[in-house]
Amino acid sequence: MIPLIYGLAPIHIPSFFYLDIMARGRALPRGRYRGEAVSVVIPCHNEEAVIGNTLKALSRIKKIRDLEVIVVDDGSSDRTFEVASSFNGVKVLRREMGGRGKSEAVNFGARHAKHEIICVLDADSRPYSRSLEYLIPYLRAKRVAASCGIVKVRNKRANWLTEMVSLEYTIANYIQWKKSMIDSYVPWMPGTITLIKKDLANFPPSLVEDAELSAKLIEDGYVIIVDKRAAASEVAPTTLRAYLRQRVRWARGNWSLLKYYRNRRALMNYLLTFFERIQPALAAISYIIFGWSIYTRNYALDFVLTPLWLFTIAVILLLYRQAVRETRERYRLRTYILYFFASSLLYLIIWVRSLFPIRGWHKTLRVRDYR
What we know:
Elements: H1 14-23, E1 38-44, H2 51-59, E2 67-74, H3 80-85, E3 90-95, H4 102-111, E4 117-121, E5 126-127, H5 131-135, E6 144-153, H6 160-179, E7 193-197, H7 209-219, E8 223-234, H8 240-254, H9 267-295, H10 299-327, H11 333-354
Helix pairs in contact: 1-10, 6-10, 6-11, 8-11, 9-10
């Protein structure tokens, strides 16, 4: 989760970066699809509930000249293999000793792919009909390692939590799209829809394998592109417990991104990542300073912190507005209020938990949409 929700803290350093991202950015060149072939790799561990409709969605993509679909059954104990095998033209690979993380399954599928462009999808990812056409042309450039789409929440109206997650994704989509327009920032690849060159598709063992590979590629001098025209939908967690487990895994894994700091061109990107990681601590410190200044009647500090507080709120509200406008989403007023306030507490819980090791690889349970 992007810690925008700490906008109520008097000291919120990421706001300065978000303002910079909103203010800058050049239009990305767009190319046309020229008949390139693509291998789609879908890692699955107990994905019987959703893999069927994902494969149906892929079968409706007609304009890709040669679309190879590979499903990696990563040690599933349900009917994932049987469901995937029932679709004509789908290559199903089984790993008996799987279930230890997404990266091993993706790398296994990429090694068995016959094409030089790999599209990585989650088992519940449904790419829009023209998404691959939009993303393929970027990979013709030597420095471009991957091209990515944005993530939409398919069950947005299920409850208050899924609507809040949808807004969270909308803001993240906007930031990643704008980062790809600015040389000093680089976006993270999403697991939901990413096209990557086969020789670079070696995902590290990590709780956030897509983000960590992004950081490694950035350090090696590559570029990652995000095109907001390309999108895929996924299902957001519908319960608070599932949401917290997923976000703790992401937050814990994101600490590993701080070891990739050697690319000086991406210094701004690294600093933003660093301050996003430590922002909860800065928020707590700023509240302590604010309270102490009031208690001791040292109002000079209040005069400094209060404008920063107002500046942060203004930047975040502007960010909400820009993100919703650019991605053409709509939300109710209560969703904005809920995200601004309630997620502050949730992220604090997630951040504190991320400071400690977690056991195993906690997979997000899917809501069944295939019979």
